[in-house]
Amino acid sequence: MKRWLTSSAGIGYLLILPSLVVIFSIIIWPILYSVYISFHKLYLVRPGEFPFVGLENYIKISRSPVFWAAVGRTFYFTGVSVGVAIILGLGIALVLNQDFKGRAFVRGLIILPWALSSVVNGMMWKWIYDGSYGALNGFLLQLGWIDSYKVWLADPRVAMNFVVMAEIWKETPVGVIFILAFLQTIPSSLYEAAKVDGASPWRRFRYITLPLLKPIILLLIVLKSVWAIRDSFDIVYMITRGGPAESTQVVTFYAYLTTFKFLRFGYGAAISYLITLIILVFAVVYMRLVYTETLYAETI
Amino acid sequence: MRKVEMKITGFLKHLPAYQVLIYTLVVLIFLFTIVPFCWLIISSISIKTELLSVPPHWIPKNPTLRSYKEILFGGTRTTRAARYFKQAVGNSIIVAGSATVLCLVIGSIASYSFTRLRFRGRHSLLLMILATQMIPAVAIIIPIYVVMMTLRLLDTHLGLFITYSSFVLPLTIWIMMGYFQTIPIDIEDAARIDGCSRLGTLVRIVLPLAAPGLAATGIFAFIVAWNEFFLALILTQAAVKTLPVLVSEFSTKFGADYVMMSTGGVLASLPPVILALTFQKYIIKGLTGGAIKG
Fold first, then answer.
1. How far apart are CA B181 and CA B134, in angstroms?
2. Quick one: closest CA in B to A286, which residue?
3. In angstroms, rounded to a whole number, what is the distance separating the alpha carbons of residues B236 and A234?
């Protein structure tokens, strides 16, 4: 026993044991328990009753138009916010990679939106969008683009886009930081050689920078999609609470309402589990990317 | 065609227009980054009539720190807000602080084990831990809630602390691995030849060398825990509400007092913003960590 404990493997297990205990008890075990709950009917208002219902919750969900609408909105929220944030991030990173005075300062500042909590971010944008006193209305009025203040968040057709804009503002820095860090690892000799060969800045971007950036952009797409699905709750909760007319009700918010407002825990668990499955698809892709990426970096 | 392109770019390079373009873009980026948050700060130091005029006064004529004084020390009409605020700050410090410490202690040794030691199942265990990082809290909150309710840990520091720790831990392990990889293995071997045990080497040699990494990881973990909202919203009711939960309730609790609301938002953001701007190099390394070997 003692010899095992002083062996490399023994110490290896010993050192990860505390972390494993914590992660197992608060994350892995609940995932499994949540599957168990999802096969039951569980209303917190009726304690003691916990009948097994098999796949009933899942069948109900699959037939619920509210659920599918929420899933659709989640994909819209994720797709648009991630897409725009990455394109914007790429543009900003390319500019910040140029030589200009105060470069270090601006580069440092770019992290600011990331440091804000999603709650403060949501509150801040809700205040900017405000229909009676908001800065957006004031600004557009002064520019002469609108005649009178508009209640942006009351319109079901556009409310989601305002929520997405708030998310984009907060999420752009992460893309900038990743891309900027990667741009610095591209040897400048590549560009110099291309310059000698007479390649224009556009061509240098198109044929050197972009292909090299491709893996990191793929990684960002996967990673940020997962984060966006996860963070969609906070921002929707803060800005619109799912309204108006359910137009911003993303699936994470729907799961929350079902569970903690209507107290249908079994049904809520089934929805949550479906969200986990969606995320797991992304997680598997992410792991593959990270692994090939690391191998790729090691072979250079 | 190629020749023309070359001529144009060669020309552009020497024209100040190129410089003008870059600086214009930089100014736009700068404004994009700071204007929304600046408006929050301006809102917090404005007086109501100026803020609520149409259009608002962009630069307040009579800036005042009154709302800060009221929220921090209590004023004539805001003793309640001040009391709640102080309590929430205390809760946030306790929960985020203790979760950070626990994650650093158990996360750093686990991370060392994953980086340096060879044992069976190492890869799959690591993959599993990293995968948990992607699971959204909303997906597993129901069992956590049921368990916390059964154990009477709802609305307690302990309950929130344990939950936060498990959510921050995978991140800690991942970031620390990047630092351990940079410590040359020769140093450890030398110490072991001199008769130091493996654990002795870890405590006396490796951890002190990894101190900057520990600090950076700690800052990162603290910001994440400090800003967390969803778990706190579900697992707290009154006594241990954290700052984000209080901020989310500002508008309903104290009426539509935009000055007060903005002040609360600015104050809640101060610790993460100051930490992030001061230690941005470390944060960037933590964020990009394993993805980019620079």
1. 23
2. B131
3. 16
Measure the CA–CA gap between A289 and B113, rounded to whole angstroms.
Answer: 23
Cα gap A61→A67, rounded to integer Å: 6
How many CA atoms are closer than 13 Å to the CA of B183, on its beta-carbon side?
23
Say if the Cβ atoms of B136 and A149 lie within 8 Å.
Answer: no
State pTM to two decimals: 0.87
Contact A31 B227 (CB under 8 A): no
What residues contact A284, with CB distance under 8 A and at least 6 apart?
none
Closest CA to B212 of B220, A16, B117: B220
Alpha-carbon distance of B187 to B210, in angstroms, equals 13
Domains of chain B: 2-64 (no CATH), 83-288 (1.10.3720.10)
- First-to-last CA distance in chain B? 38
In one-letter notation, the amino acid at residue B16 is P
Number of A/B CB contacts below 8 angstroms equals 297
CB atoms within 10 A of CB B208: 9
The residue count for chain A? 300
Give CB contacts under 8 A, 24+ apart, made by A147-154.
A149/B54, A153/A126, A153/A129, A153/A239, A153/A240, A153/A244, A154/A244
CB B107 within 8 A of CB B173: yes
Q: B247 vs A120: CB contact, 8 Å cut-off? A: yes
Cite the DSSP H helix spans in chain B: 2-14, 16-45, 48-51, 66-73, 79-116, 122-132, 137-150, 157-182, 185-193, 198-201, 207-209, 211-227, 230-235, 243-253, 258-278, 280-288
Per-residue pLDDT of chain B (294 residues; tens, 9 = 90+): 556 666 666 655 666 778 888 899 999 999 999 999 999 999 999 888 888 887 888 888 888 888 888 888 776 665 677 788 888 999 999 999 999 999 999 999 999 999 888 888 888 888 888 778 777 788 788 889 888 888 899 999 999 999 999 989 988 998 888 888 888 888 888 888 888 887 888 888 888 888 888 988 999 899 999 999 999 999 998 889 999 999 888 877 766 788 888 999 999 999 999 999 998 887 777 777 655 543
Q: How many Cβ atoms from other residues are within 10 Å of residue A277's Cβ?
A: 10
Topology, domain A73-263 = MetI-like fold (1.10.3720)
Chain B nearest-CA distance from A190, in A, is 17
Closest chain B residue to A182, measured at CA: B292
- What kind and span of H or E run contains A125? helix A118-129
User: Which residues on chain A are in Cβ contact (under 8 Å) with B163?
Assistant: 26
* Residue ranges, CATH 1.10.3720.10, chain A: 73-263
**Closest Cβ opposite residue B273 in set A115, A142, A273:** A115
Chain-chain contact of B55 with A123 (C-beta, under 8 angstroms): no
| ipTM confidence score | 0.86
